[in-house]
Amino acid sequence: MRLSFILVENTEIDLYIASKLIKGIAGEVVVEKFLSSEDALDHIAFEKTKKADRTIILLDLMMPRLNGADFISLFEALPDRVKDRYQIVIVTSSMNRVELDRLSKRRNVELVIEKPLTREKFKSLLEQIQMDANEKEV
Amino acid sequence: MSDKLKILYIDDEPDNLTGFKATFRTQYHIFTAENAGQATELLQKNRDIRVVFCDQRMPGKTGAEYFAEIKGTFPLPIRILITAFADIEAVISAVNQGNIFRYIRKPWIEQDIISAIEESNKFYVANSLLSVKNDELQKAYTELDKFAYSVSHDLRGPLTGILGAIDVAKEMSDINELRDLLVLMEKSVFKLEDYIASMHDYYSSRRGELKISDIDFNMVAEELKDFYRIYTTTNKISFQTVVRQPEAFRSDELMIKMILNNLVTNAIKYQKRNFENKCIDLNISVYDGLATILISDTGIGIPESHFDEIFNLFSRATSLRAGSGIGLYNVKSGLLKLGGKIEVSSVLGEGTVFKLIIPSK
Lengths: 138, 361
Fold this sequence. Notes:
The complex is a heterodimer.
Chain A: E1 3-8, H1 12-25, E2 30-34, H2 37-45, E3 54-59, H3 68-76, H4 80-83, E4 86-92, H5 97-104, E5 109-114, H6 119-137
Parallel strand pairs in A: 1-2, 1-3, 3-4, 4-5
Helix pairs in contact in A: 2-3
Chain B: E1 6-10, H1 14-24, E2 29-33, H2 36-45, E3 51-55, H3 63-73, E4 78-83, H4 88-96, E5 102-105, H5 110-170, H6 175-207, E6 212-214, H7 217-234, E7 237-244, E8 250-252, H8 253-269, E9 278-287, E10 290-297, H9 327-338, E11 341-347, E12 351-359
Parallel strand pairs in B: 1-2, 1-3, 3-4, 4-5, 7-9
Antiparallel strand pairs in B: 6-8, 9-10, 10-12, 11-12
C-alpha cells in the first residue's frame, strides 16, 4: 500500500517534527507540508496531491484564519471521489475534551492524537492505518 | 439641573399633588402626574427617576395594577404604593408579587415619605452596583474562556513543540540536523517568553492605576529607536522618527510605551521578507492637548476584511508570522484607559498605518 501524507500545521517546529518522524519511521513516502490551512485545502480541492493509495492528513486544530474544525467542515463539502482518498488525523495540544470528542466522530476523522507527536504515537498510528487497510481488503 | 433625586408622584387629586410637591420640592426633584398615561410619559422622558409613589385608588387603574404594568417596562425606579387602610388586601398581594418595594399609609406624614425615599435610594444604588458588577463579571468570564483556550494553544503549544523536538532529537546523530532543531526549539522558547510578557501587559493595562506624569515624546522616540536598534539593523529596516512637541503633554508613560512597543514590534515582525527598502516611520505631533501618533510600515499589510477584528483578544490575521493575538488587544485597551483611540489603514502587500489620538490628562 502506498501511503502519502499532508501536514497542515502553522507551527514550524511541529511541522518539522512531524515530517522527521514520518521519514524516519514510514520511510520514503511523499510528505506535503502546509503552514497555511487555506493553501492545504486548495491543494486538496483542486486535486493537486500526489497519487497514492491512501493519503493521511495530519491536521492541527488551532490555526489562524481557517482553523482545523472549519477545515474539516469545508473538506466534508468536497465530492466523495476526492474525499475518499483521505483520512484525517487530528494532532492537537487542545485540552477541550468536548470539542475533541465531537470532532473525532466526524466521518473523515480517523483519530485524534494529543501533541507532542512522538515516535510511539506515530508508530501506533501507522499500525492502525495498516490494520484498517487489511480489514477493508478482507 | 441639580443632582437632587428625581421622584414621581401619581395621584388623581390635584390637591394632593400640589401638597406633595410643596412639601418636598426643596429636597427632591419632584415630578407629578394625574393619571397613568401622564406618568408613563414622564418615566419615558426621565429615565433617571429613582422612586415612584402612586395612590392606590385612582379611576381606571389601581396603583397596584399600574405598578404591575410598569414593572417590566421601567424596572429600575423603586415603586411605593400610597394607600388607605381599607386596601390592605391589594397591598399584600402587590408586595407578594414583588410589584412594590413598600407602602405608605394615607394620609402620609412627611417623615414616612422621606424615610421611604432614603431607603428606596439605598436599595436602588445597591441594585445598580450589583448590575454593574454582574456585567463586569460576565465580561471577565468571557475573557477567562478565551484565556483557557489560549492556555492550550499559546502556553502548551510551544511546550509540546519542544517536547516533540526532544523526542526526535534523541534519535538524531547528525549534528547539523540537531542544530536546525535547536533553532526551532529556540523559536518556541521565544514565543513562550513573548506570550508571558504580553500577558503581563494585559493585566497591567486593564487593572493598573494610571500614573500621570509629563511626557517628553522626543525621549520616548529615542528610547524606542535605541531599544529596537539591534532588530532594525540586523533586518535592514530603516526606522525614522519625527517628533513635534511644542507643548507639555501629560499621560501614563508606561502605558504609552507599552502601546508604542507593541506597534513597533508588529511593524518589525510583519515586514515583507526579501524586500529592499524596509521602513518604519514614527511621527508624533502634539497640539492643543492632543497627541497624534502615526506609525507606518512597509509590511505585508492587513486585509481590509480583518480591520475590525485585529484588536480583539487572540485574533490573528495571518499565519505567516508568530503571534499570540494579544498585542493589539493590549494596545486598544491601553488606549481606552488613556481616553485615546486608534485607526488602521492598510494596503495588502504594501504596508500598514496605525493612527493614534491621545488626549493629554
